[in-house]
Amino acid sequence: MDEVLAFDLFGTLVDTASVAAALARALAGASALDAPRLAAAWRAKQLEYTFRLTLMEQYQDFDWVTARALEFALAAESRTLGPDERAELAAGYWHLSTFPDVADGLARLAGTGRELVVLSNGSPAMLAAYADRPEFAGRFTRWISVEDVRAYKPARRPYEYAAHLLGRPIGALRLISSNPFDVIGAKSAGLATAWIDRGTGVFDPIGAPPDMTVAGLTELAAVLGG
Ligand code: LAC
After folding, report:
1. Residues marked as catalytic
2. 129 CA distance to ligand 1 centroid (A)?
3. Beta-strand relationship, 4-7 and 173-177
4. Eight-state DSSP code of residue 142
C-alpha cells in the first residue's frame, strides 16, 4: 500500500507572505512601512504563540492566535489600527494566495494513486473554506485540523492523531511541509518527510535532515513518479 501524503497548509500550499498587500493598504499613509517584514514578524509571532500555548498545555484556536500575533506585531512597530481593521487583516489568513506550483503538483500527485490529506494548524472552519478552492477540490480525502487534539504541531499528538484517523502505521505517512519545525516534528514522531524549500535554503540543525528536499510540488510529483 502506498504511503499517504500529509500536506501542511500555511506556507506550504498557501503563501503567508500574501497578507503583505493588505497590511500595506491598511497602513497606507502611516510612516514608511516594510509590509513584507511586518507580515513575516506577524507570522513568526503566530507560530511562537502556537508553540508556547502547546508547551503550557493550553489551547486557543488558530484565529485567536493569528489575531493576538497581529496585535503584537503592530504594537512592536508602534502602529495603531482599530479593532475592525485588525479583524479584517486577520481574516486575510482565510484567503491567502495559493502558490503557483500547487495546482499542477497536486494533479500529478493525485495521478500517482497516493492518498493525499491536509494536516494543519488551521481551525476546521478555516480548512473548510480552503477546501472549496478549485485547485484543492477533490484532491484531499481529509482536511485534518490539530484542533481535534487541541495541540499544535510539532507536538507528537497531531501527527499520531492523523495516522490514527487514517488507520495507518505512522511510518506510512509522509509529511510535506515548507516549515522546518513541522518536518523535524513529523520525523521525530515517526513519519517520513519532504521539505518544500520555498527559497530559504536554510533548515534548522536541531533534528534529522528532511528525507527529501524539493523546490515545489511539481518537483515533488516528479520525484514520486507523477
Ligand atoms: C500549518 C502551519 C504549521 O498549516 O503552517 O499547520
Report:
1. 8
2. 15
3. parallel
4. E
Ranges under pLDDT 70 in the chain: 1, 29-32
- Distance, CA of 171 to CA of 187 (rounded, Å): 9
Nine cell digits for residue 122:
488551521
Q: Is 64 helix (H, G, I), strand (E, B) or coil?
A: helix
Strand (E) or helix (H) holding 14: strand 14-15
Supply the pLDDT for residue 37.
92
d(CA 106, CA 124): 21
| Residue 214 dihedral angles phi and psi, to the nearest 5° | -135, 165
Summarised one tens digit per residue, pLDDT across range 60-81 is: 999 999 999 999 999 998 888 9
**pLDDT the model gives residue 33:** 72
The pairing of beta strand 14-15 with beta strand 192-196: unpaired
Measure the CA–CA gap between 48 and 136, rounded to whole angstroms. Answer: 28
Which atom of ligand 1 lies closest to the CA of 120? 6
Q: Which of 7, 10, 18 to mutate to test the pocket of ligand 1 (most atoms within 8 A of CB)?
A: 10
All cell numbers assigned to 189: 514522531
**Ligand 1 center to 131 CA (angstroms):** 15
User: Would you state the pLDDT for residue 80?
Assistant: 87
If we measure between CA atoms, which residue out of 68, 56, 60, 111 comes closest to residue 222?
111
Q: pTM for the whole thing?
A: 0.95
